[in-house]
Specification:
This protein is about 30% helix and about 30% strand. By secondary structure, the protein is of the alpha+beta class. It has one domain: 60s Ribosomal Protein L30, Chain: A (2-Layer Sandwich). It is globular.
């Protein structure tokens, strides 16, 4: 049986310490990434520009993947949570800068709000490392 290993990239320790969750957990060859927001962390504000938020969210996800020895090509499934769906075309364009063929499974879900005020998207991913 595989043991689980908590993945906490440098600079994301506050998630674990303050909010009591791991940015990712690895079990065997599978990596389960917690949702990443377009927020650069404590003391920072969420950018008003949706495109900038989406870029930061993917960059945050990239940091989590890298800390586990993975990258975007290892993602097998993503779930995105959107405050309204009006920015989906912009999100898809930013996603195309990070997610390449062969594409993972993707589910986009509309929600009323996220954990950080002003956040427009949260990206959760599962990868095979």
């Amino acid at each position: 049986m595989s043991k689980r290993r908590t993945i906490i990239p440098k600079g994301m320790e506050f998630y674990y310490e303050q909010f009591h969750f791991a940015p990712a957990v690895r079990v065997g060859k599978m990596l389960y990434c917690s949702g990443q927001l377009g927020w650069a962390g404590p003391g920072k504000t969420v950018p008003a520009d949706p495109k900038e938020q989406f870029k930061i969210a993917f960059e945050n996800l990239g940091q989590v993947l890298a800390a586990a020895g993975a990258d975007f090509d290892d993602i097998v499934e993503i779930t995105t949570f959107h405050v309204g769906m009006q920015h989906l075309a912009v999100f898809s364009a930013v996603k195309a800068d990070f997610i390449k063929q062969p594409y993972p499974a993707w589910t986009a879900i509309g929600v009323s709000e996220l954990a950080i005020p002003g956040a427009l998207v949260e990206i959760r991913a599962t990868a095979r490392v």
